[in-house]
């Protein structure tokens, strides 16, 4: 069991806690400007030119066999880097509307379509709305295990979960496809809640987008290499797998470490702003690291700050984190952060541990007993 002990806050403390965090947002939002615009445009350029260089090296290796291996490796890494930056630092943040204020049509959250099998429209629904609104609320946040994994003991155990250490590996390799079908809720078909025809019709936008991605990466570019299509095809496969695994690791480290908590549905009834912040804090985890880690994770190394301020440009999170951490310390709230090996090690332990039957730990109240809602607002932490 986690040894973390958060101070239970009184209603008045919860109010001022929320006010102070709102003030952090207001200060940074008021100073958005040219430096933030330059930053995201540099990211756009990096995505473009890393992608061009990666694909060029894959072709070079295919046609000039004397440099096949080094060119192929360099091409795969650059193409994977382009895809990681596009998905995490560019698309994810743009789709949150972080750069809508710029007025640039190519950086508008409602219109941006990303380089991944799933549609941005589905992501706005499952992630921007459902996950960020109901973070770690059982029965409302589909990101808790993604319908495949039992990460928390509050999830009802079934014999299928005995396979989840293996399922988790496959899910990591194919992560973009799991994200693509998340909103389809395929489990409804098995439960008889929808027919195959209904599901097929609902999946039309996903099928169209997935086909486009498959044709681009696995048909068009390999065919352009002519008789040397195989190295290019394998290069595209490898780049996508690297992107998938890295994205999986970062997202899981941000939500499923040992100290992350889940919450019952009734915790959001009449939820105040301060309580919303507290729930986001206790359901999120940061990854310690420098600027390179921040960029490579799309600044989701600051998952706490991202859950607090999802529509503030993510390049601001490092500075905001200093203030957020100080506020958390003043109010006796655990600020969950650690190195990537430490955080992912905890995630892997959760996956293995909760493949077997386990009981939830006692609920911990978010507010003092003087508040009549104290018990219903408790989150739960387990080993």
UniProtKB/TrEMBL annotation:
Q: Where is this region: Disordered?
A: 360-383
The protein's organism comes out as Stenotrophomonas humi
Alphabetized, the UniProt keywords read: Membrane, Transmembrane, Transmembrane helix
Q: Name one GO molecular function term.
A: oxidoreductase activity, acting on paired donors, with oxidation of a pair of donors resulting in the reduction of molecular oxygen to two molecules of water
Question: Mind telling me which GO cellular component terms the entry cites?
Answer: membrane
Which BP terms from GO are recorded?
lipid metabolic process
Stated name of the protein: Acyl-CoA desaturase
Span of domain Fatty acid desaturase: 71-337
Transmembrane region positions? 57-81, 160-180, 218-239
Q: Which Pfam families match?
A: FA_desaturase
């Amino acid at each position: 069991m986690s040894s973390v002990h958060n101070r239970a806050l009184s209603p008045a403390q919860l109010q001022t806690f929320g006010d102070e965090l709102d003030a952090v947002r207001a200060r940074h939002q008021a100073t958005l400007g040219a430096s933030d615009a330059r930053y995201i445009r540099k990211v756009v350029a990096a995505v473009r030119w890393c992608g061009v260089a990666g694909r060029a090296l894959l072709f070079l290796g295919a046609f000039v066999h004397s440099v096949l291996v080094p060119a192929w490796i360099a091409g795969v890494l650059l193409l994977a880097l382009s895809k990681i930056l596009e998905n995490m630092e560019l698309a994810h943040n743009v789709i949150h509307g972080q750069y809508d204020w710029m007025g640039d049509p190519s950086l508008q959250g409602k219109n941006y379509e990303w380089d991944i099998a799933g549609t941005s429209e589905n992501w706005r629904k499952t992630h921007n709305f459902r996950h960020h609104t109901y973070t770690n609320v059982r029965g409302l946040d589909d990101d808790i295990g993604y319908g495949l994994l039992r990460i928390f003991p509050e999830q009802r155990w079934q014999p299928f979960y005995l396979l989840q250490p293996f399922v988790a590996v496959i899910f990591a390799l194919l992560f973009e496809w799991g994200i693509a079908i998340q909103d389809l809720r395929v489990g409804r078909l098995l439960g008889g809640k929808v027919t195959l025809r209904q599901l097929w019709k609902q999946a039309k936008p996903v099928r169209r987008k997935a086909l486009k991605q498959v044709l681009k990466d696995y048909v068009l570019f390999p065919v352009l290499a002519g008789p040397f299509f195989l190295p290019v095809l394998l290069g595209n496969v490898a780049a996508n797998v690297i992107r998938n695994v890295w994205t999986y690791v970062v997202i899981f480290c941000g939500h499923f470490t040992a100290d992350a908590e889940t919450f019952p549905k009734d915790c959001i009834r009449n939820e105040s702003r301060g309580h919303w912040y507290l729930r986001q804090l206790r359901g999120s985890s940061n990854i310690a690291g420098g600027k390179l880690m921040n960029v490579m994770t799309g600044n989701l190394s600051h998952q706490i700050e991202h859950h607090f301020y999802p529509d503030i440009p993510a390049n601001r999170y490092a500075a905001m984190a200093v203030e957020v951490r100080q506020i958390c310390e003043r109010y006796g709230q655990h600020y969950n952060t650690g190195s990537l090996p430490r955080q992912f090690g905890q995630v892997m332990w959760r996956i293995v541990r909760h493949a077997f039957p386990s009981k939830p730990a006692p609920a911990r109240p978010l507010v003092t007993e003087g508040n009549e809602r104290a018990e219903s607002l408790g989150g739960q932490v387990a080993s």
